[in-house]
Structures are given as structure tokens and as C-alpha cells.
Amino acid sequence: MPFVVDRQRRRLLKARRKKPEWQDTRPPEEELRDSWEVAREDQERYARNFALAAGALAAPAVLRRIRRKDPTDVDGILRSIPFLGSGLPEAKEVWAPMERRFREQMAATIGSAGAQEWARLGIDGPFSAQNTFSQRFIQNRAAMITNTISDSSRLALQESLQSAVNQGLHPRALAKLVEQNVGLTGREARAVDNFLTARLAEGKPMTAARASSERYAARLRRQRGLRIARTELNTAQNRGRLDSWRVAQEAGLVKPDAQKTWIAAAGSPRTCEICLDLHGQTVPLTEPWESPFVGAVQHPGEDAHVMCRCGMLLRQGSSQ
User: Fold this and answer.
1) Are 70 and 63 within 8 A, CB to CB?
2) If I label 131, which of 137, 196, 236, 309 is the partner at 20 to 30 A Cα–Cα?
3) pLDDT at 94
4) Is residue 170's pLDDT more than 80?
5) What is the pLDDT of residue 37?
6) In whole angstroms, what is the distance from residue 200 CA to residue 204 CA?
């Protein structure tokens, strides 16, 4: 058993190291191509939601507060940034709109994906996300994303600030660091620090090196926004498909023994091992797939991994 567990752990690490491309190949299944096009068009709208929140965390009023703080008091500096749970009045103004926009965006994506499925199945009547399955998912998912973004950003800034304090940076430089690294993950913030160190080692003047690192940080922040957007778009689309099938099944419009089949971008050379393992597997509509890498997966998307591109198809049962 220890050998099996260790082997699965190694396979999972290998799968995660292979960074799946986003929508690099059109789905071979005609039923999934409309969703593929919608995802490409809507990703900027999702990404902008993250960008607005990240910008608010480094608003001028926030940076002024940071400059007035004791430069050695990392916790005090962090408390002056409106993360969730900070108690600052503007925290609600940053995160409540973000969560609301995510709910609205998910509802629109779920509704669109579900309507496409009903049209494909020849089911009359409009599908909307105002059903019990979708509403529960939207509320929980939007809150979870918002909390995750706030918490991960806070931890990343805490690490960056502590490193800067140890180096004796001036309070004004600390404020600039917050403005540069806000919204990044810990790994991304460390990459920016390493980038700056490398530029200085090349002999670049500090001003030029910092300008380069700020541009690099902005690029990483945009990439993170796109990762969030692409992950949530595909998650919501697949959730819309699943919920449309479940609503139809409850109404007797889909067979009781209906099943769902995982469809991966199997023709892409960079499709990860997680999804290749699930590709073509069929399970009952209300049951999850079981992955040796990530465990139970209800539908393609974030359940599998960040930036999953996979879809799924309905298979009507033998009682049809």
C-alpha cells in the first residue's frame, strides 16, 4: 500500500507540472464547440473582476496608510490593507461587489450552457440558473473564490513584506512593494523578487531593475486573472450542463439511468494526466468520477485542476 500511495503521489506531481494549455484545440465533439467559443469570448469579463479587486487593495488611500505605519510592523501594515476580515470599512466595498459579480457571471454562464443543452436535447422551455442545484452552487462557489483570492493575496504580501523588512526597506518602498505584488500568489511574488535580484546581478541600475520587475509583476497578475477566469468559466459551463440534465431528469425529460461521459482534449499533446485518465469514463449522472490523482470529481473544471479545459456529454440510459 505505501508503494501505491507513493506512486500515485508521483503521478499527481507529474500531472501538475504539465501546465495544460487553455483551449488550444477545438473540441472534437460538435456539442461542445459553442461552449468553447463562449469561453474564449467571456474570459476577459471574468478576469476584469479579479483586476478590479486587486486594484482596490492598492488604492491611494491604502498606500498612504502603509507609509504612515511602523516599517517593522508587518502585521500592522497588513491590517491597513482591506482584505476580508480586516475590519476596515472599505473591505466590504472591495469584496462584496467582487462576490456579486462572480455570482452574476456564473449565473449567466450556467444559464447559457444549460440552455444550449436543452436545445440540443430538444427540450422545450427556457432553462435558467434559478434552480435549486445552480443557486446553491453559485452562492457557495462565489464566496469560496472571493475568500481564496483574499487569503492567498494576504499570505503572499505577508511573505514579501517580511522579506522586505528584513532587508530594511524604507516605508515608502514598502508601499511600492504592496502596489507591485498585490493580487499575486506567494509563488508569483517570489518570482518577482527573484526577477529583481537577477536584474540587479546583471548590473542594471536599481530604478531600471524595479521598473522591469513592476512590469513583470503586472504580467503575472494578469495571468493570474486569466487563470481564475478560465477555471471559473469552464467550471460554470460544466455545472450548467450538469444542472440542466438534473432539472430535466427530475421533470422526467431525461431517463433515470442517464449517465455522463468525461471528454478531454485528448488530441492535445499537453493535456494533463489527470484528464487523460478520466477521458471517456462514464458514470451515473448523480455520481462523481473517481480520479487516482484528485479523488471524487463531480464535473470537469476546478474539481480536476486549475484551467481544466474538459467537457462532458450526456449519455441516455438503456431504458430510452
Assistant:
1) no
2) 309
3) 92
4) no
5) 64
6) 5
Query: DSSP secondary structure string, the chain?
Result: -HHHHHHHHHHHHHHHHS-PPSS-S--SSHHHHHHHHHHHHHHHHHHHHHHHHHHHHT-HHHHHHHHTS-TT-HHHHHHTS--TTS--HHHHHHHHHHHHHHHHHHHHHHHHHHHHHHHHHT--S---S-SHHHHHHHHHHHHHHHHHHHHHHHHHHHHHHHHHHHTT--HHHHHHHHHHHTT--HHHHHHHHHHHHHHHHTT--HHHHHHHHHHHHHHHHHHHHHHHHHHHHHHHHHHHHHHHHHHHHHTTSS-TT-EEEEE--TTSTT--HHHHHHTT-EEETTS-EEETTTEEESSSSTTT-TT---EEEEE--TT-
Q: Which amino acid is at 106?
A: M
Is the pLDDT confidence value at 6 over 90?
A: no
pLDDT at 310 over 50: yes
8 Å CB contact between 310 and 55: no
Does residue 194 contact residue 271 with C-beta atoms inside 8 Å?
no
pLDDT of residue 42: 77
| Range from 14-28, 42-56, 119-133, 214-228 carrying the lowest mean pLDDT | 14-28
Q: How far is CA 117 from the centre of its chain?
A: 24
pLDDT the model gives residue 32:
59
Among the listed residues 143, 320, 312, 165, the one whose alpha carbon sits nearest the alpha carbon of residue 242: 312
* Residue 165 confidence (pLDDT): 82
Q: Which residues of 162-180 are buried (b: 16+ CB within 10 A; e: fewer)?
A: eebbeeebeeeebbbbbbb
